[in-house]
Amino acid sequence: MSSTKFPASHSAPVSADSGPTAPRDAPHDAMRLNKHVAAMVPCSRRDAELYIEGGWVTVDGEIMREPEFAVQAHQVALREGAKAEAAVPMTFLLHQFPNKADTAPHIAVDNRAADDQSDIHPRRAHFYKLAPSLPLEPHASGLLVFTQDMRIARKLTEDAATIEQEYIVEVKGTLDARGLRELNAGYKHNNKLLPFAKVSWQNETKLRFALKGIVAGQLAYMCDSVGLEVISMKRLRIGRISMGKLPLGQWRYLPIDEKF
Q1: C-alpha closest to that of 241 among 114, 130, 155
Q2: What is the distance in angstroms between the CA of the first residue and the CA of the last residue of the chain?
Q3: b/e sequence 25-62, b meaning 16+ C-beta within 10 Å
Q4: Where residue 130 falls among pLDDT bands split at 50, 70, 90?
Q5: Over the Cα atoms of the chain, what is R_g?
Q6: N or C: which end of the chain has fewer CB within 10 A?
Q7: Residue 188, burial from CB neighbour count under 10 angstroms (0-12, 13-18, 19+)
Q8: Could you tell me the pTM of the whole model?
Q9: How confident is residue 28, by pLDDT bands cut at 50, 70 and 90?
Q10: Residue 71 CA: distances (Å) to CA of 29, 36, 38, 60, 168
């Protein structure tokens, strides 16, 4: 996996491929790669950038994804079957650190999970305008979704009441059979009925919560109501999408055939 970063901000990322390196101060006779490709094909400057970002352009035999690369005495070629296609909207699954703001993800090429099986090659367009969906419980870690795909964003927003989420909550305190029944019986908060939860023990210190339409702070409120102190919370699953063995602080792409 390449260690080159694509920043999550709107600043221009650098290439994820090894290959020729553009000098900091390009000579006056140098030409930007996108301009060179546009003249070479010929095609529009926009199509040239799509060829480059799609990995269809090589410089001295190496794939080059930087439209601003300074071409001098380099051998530039367009790979066979090249298509000037815009990047497909992407969705990322991130194992978020606890106590981190959902709106400030660290998603870059260097923290992509090594075992990501999606076979998707990162493009700079993938890392722009990532919108978070279904926020985590306050102070929780675990599965967090960032997407450019408005269909997925709408589904996770409009269907939140019907999509089951699974949390593991580490607690401190004593919970007898009666207390466990109370957790499964349904709750009211501020005279409003909270979404029903299925609660069971995962081990001696951790409870498994499965619920739909979760209200922010609900899990901590439920635990406190039966005398339990929350030590930590982690979301493992949203609908049919599980975090699996995704390492803390790393992400993977959501392939097109995986559905929430």
Answers
A1: 155
A2: 27
A3: eeeeebbbbbebbbebeebeeebbbbbbbbbbbbbeee
A4: confident
A5: 24
A6: N
A7: exposed
A8: 0.75
A9: low
A10: 9, 7, 13, 10, 53
178 pLDDT more than 50 = yes
One-letter amino acid for residue 110 of the chain: D
Tokens of 5: 């970063």
Render pLDDT for 82-127 as a digit per residue (tens, 0 to 9). 999 888 999 999 999 998 766 555 788 889 999 999 988 888 889 8
Neighbours of 67 (CB within 10 A): 22
Beta-sheet pairing, 141-147 with 229-238: parallel
Long-range contacts of 240-245 (CB under 8 A, 24+ apart): 241/93, 241/143, 241/145, 242/143, 243/93, 243/95, 243/142, 243/143, 245/115
Tokens 């803390």 correspond to what residue? 248
**Angle at 205 (CA atoms; ends 202, 209), nearest 5 degrees:** 45
Contacts of 115 (CB under 8 A, 6+ apart): 245, 252
Q: Tokens standing for 161?
A: 């009441």
Task: Give the integer Cα–Cα distance in Å for 255 and 34.
Answer: 29
Q: Report H helices in the chain.
A: 33-40, 45-53, 150-158, 177-183, 218-225
Measured from the Cβ of residue 177, the count of other Cβ atoms closer than 10 Å reads 7
C-alpha 233/C-alpha 2 separation (Å) is: 32
